[in-house]
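pasting for ref. prot 1 ->
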Amino acid sequence: MLSRWIFNQSRESRFGNGVVLAFLLVQALDGVLTYVGLASIGRAAEGNPLLGGLMAMFGLVPALASAKLVAGSLGIVLHLFGTHRLIAVLTAIYVGAAIVPWAVIIAMLS
């Protein structure tokens, strides 16, 4: 039942457009907060081992930019498929799992 609600496809709507915009803004904000946090305390603070490996190979900015471009692109693909509720759920999870923790860490460093 829950999967039916989350993966329900809908046509273009204000909700869908707003959700994908929020998703893209959250991705951009996470990129900025991650950069500030990792530039302040070092790459070892990155919790994603794949992103940490990319940072070790290519550097902080190229790895973050690539990850955010991929995530944003996948969000747009979901939007084009009309899975707006899924994008909304992913956005909320991202705020709780990435934005809030980085904001707290950066606030503690200030």
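and prot 2 ->
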Amino acid sequence: MKNRVRGLAIAILVGLMCLIAPISPCLAIANPDSLTIYTAKVFQNIFETGDILFVVSYNIAYAPEPTEDCADAFLFSLYDTDGTTLLAQRQVEYYQYNLTSLYFDATAAAALTWEANYKLKIMGNPVLFASLVEGTNVITWTLSASEYVTGTMTDSRELLRLHCLDIAQDLEDDWGSSYDLITTTADGERLTSLGRTVFLDAIAGLDGAVKALFQLSSGSMDIEWDTHTDGLQNLLSIDNTTGTMLAGAFSGIGDYVGMSGQTVASLFIVLIALIVMGIVFFYSGNTVAAMALSTPIFIMGNWMGLVPLVVTFIAAMLVALYVLYHFILRGM
């Protein structure tokens, strides 16, 4: 019995030690074969006046690629001129030769200094790498004034378009002939569907700002709605055409059955039209004639303000469609 109690106590103690012991992450990813930043450019006034866009082409070379997703393994970071103050960071989506970006809207960009010697880093995620070593799993690019592209929105968008085409050509050359990123159209060079995917992954919303870079682009349309006063419709209403007594009668019936006076008046005209239609059909057996002779009743209802214009329009359309069917389509 004592042995059992002692064994149970030891098991509990070991379990508690496992719970409180520090857990070390599994550092399974190897360093890349090479790590390179090829180009770095900074653009302004792309999506809105005063914004800033950092664009970098890089190469995280692995052969073969790790099983870990690149977005978990590598980061693209912007550091202040001191090289230690982190200003912004995002995940890097792809291994090998590709591009990425960091975007600051006008409000956020106001805190940055144009043409400052900021540090751009492609770096391993500290969670997956035992240590970060410059030139091994970290590469740093110090920006110079010449890499800042100054211009109006029109100029900046055009220069970004040309820069993207240059990167796309370099990617195409590196990836091989089976990867077509650029195509030539009547309007000049454009990104293919594959190129579109690559660049929108790197620069979200680019097709809305630099439409001339894409064969197909997206954007927003500002629609200014016209306003109207329904003058004719209001003029031909029951309150304005039939007089107080008749309008009151229809309103009284409407209050009783839970409808508006205008609706009751419309149903009254429809009932008369149906009666006329039934009489004509009963004596002639002609459906077209019955429908045609009932149409003037709706017009009279419009003139008296008893029927909204839209009801007459719908009735006329139904008659026209039936006549078309009766004389043309049925004959075919």
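The chain has twelve helices and ten strands.
The two ends are 101 Å apart (CA to CA).
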